[in-house]
Amino acid sequence: MQNRYRIIDTTLREGEQTPGVSFSLTEKKHIIDGLALIGLAEIEIGISSRLMPDLTTLFSHCRSRHPELAVSLWSRCRAEDIGYAATLLPDILSLSIPVSDLHLENRLEKDRNWARRALSESIILARGLGLRVSVGFEDATRADAAFLKEMAVLAERLGAERIRLADTVGISSPGRFSLLVREVQGVLTGCELAVHTHNDFGMATANAVAALEAGATWADATVLGLGERAGCARLEELVGYISLLTEEKAMASHHLKDLATYVAALISMTIDPARPLIGKRIFTCETGLHLQGLQRDPTTYEPYPPERVGAERKLLFGAKSGRRAIIDRLSQLGHSLGEDRITSYIKAIRERSQAARSPLTDSELLAAVLNP
């Protein structure tokens, strides 16, 4: 059964646009293998250009090793780029064109009539060459809404199968993006919607989720959120949310950490220990009430089991730990204390923890019992 929510990974296209980031052919293949393990619906492996020497080899790798994985290319609305894509035969070609007056006039020195014409000619050419077409509307969140919808209707009428709305500078919010998705969807008859979100205000993942819940089918993501400026929606967060908090279980979230760790090593990035889904510390707890809850029922303070993301629960006991949590832990370790010793024992382990500036291990907890 096909998922209601689907992800397009664009690490090898948008992700490689991160300043200072460049992957070798071998590294790209390894990333593709990792994405396939997670079970994504589609990967965008690059830009349709003869200046991209790895594309032929990458297509061959995908088709021989991962035939179930849809492979797409990003392309400008230029005849030479579309013609080159036709020699590679991607599963779908994503044509990109700006729709905001800011981009059309200030960047390209063009107008809306040019955009209408370029879009029409490009879709007709691509379909004439046997390609399935997706259309990406750059800077959609700053475009005139009427013109955006006009372009969406035009794209669908000419045969585009998917419309991708880009929040190019990350200025949208979940509420605004939901409204935009519903507005555009309201003028289409069956064309699927996708979104490409940027993280300039820290809302890329939230915007992607909001768009999906509003009716979009596809959302872009990159490993570690790589991309221009502050990056894009993080693959780890988007896969984690969809696979762990919805009924759609097709994606394997336990493979996220290995891929993220691999890519982080390639680009010399340190993963914050508190990073959602993949951080080393996200299942570590020391505070009293939380420890008590976790020991009795982990769902009290965990949104999903740690093994679902390849992690382990780590309970620490020290200066922040409460009386009940410490007593429960000692009981689990096979020791109990009489009421006359409990208060002094807890005071002792808190003092030891403060002096060491770290929580105590199980062996240290037991040592405190045996050698008060």
Itemize the secondary structure elements and their pairings:
Blueprint (H helix, E strand, L loop, with lengths): L5 E4 L15 H14 L3 E6 L7 H11 L4 E7 L2 H10 L3 E7 L2 H7 L4 H17 L4 E6 L6 H13 L4 E6 L6 H12 L6 E6 L6 H11 L3 E4 L13 H11 L10 H11 L17 E2 L2 H9 L17 E2 L7 H10 L6 H18 L5 H9 L2
Parallel strand pairs: 1-2, 1-8, 2-3, 3-4, 4-5, 5-6, 6-7, 7-8, 9-10
Number of separate helices: 14
How many structural domains does the protein architecture include?
A: 2
CATH superfamily assignment of the largest domain? Aldolase class I
Structural class determined from secondary elements? alpha/beta
Beginning-to-end CA distance, first to last residue: 60 Å
Q: Describe the largest sheet.
A: 8 strands, parallel, barrel
Strands ordered across the widest β-sheet: 1-2-3-4-5-6-7-8
Mean pLDDT: 92
Name the shape in a single word.
elongated
Give the radius of gyration: 25 Å
Number of strand elements? 10
Briefly note the CATH topology name of the largest domain: TIM Barrel
- Write down the secondary-structure element order: EHEHEHEHHEHEHEHEHHEHEHHH
CATH architecture label name of the largest domain: Alpha-Beta Barrel
- The fraction of residues in strands falls at 5-15%
Q: Helix proportion of residues, in percent?
A: 40-55%
CATH class of the largest domain: Alpha Beta
Low-confidence stretches: none
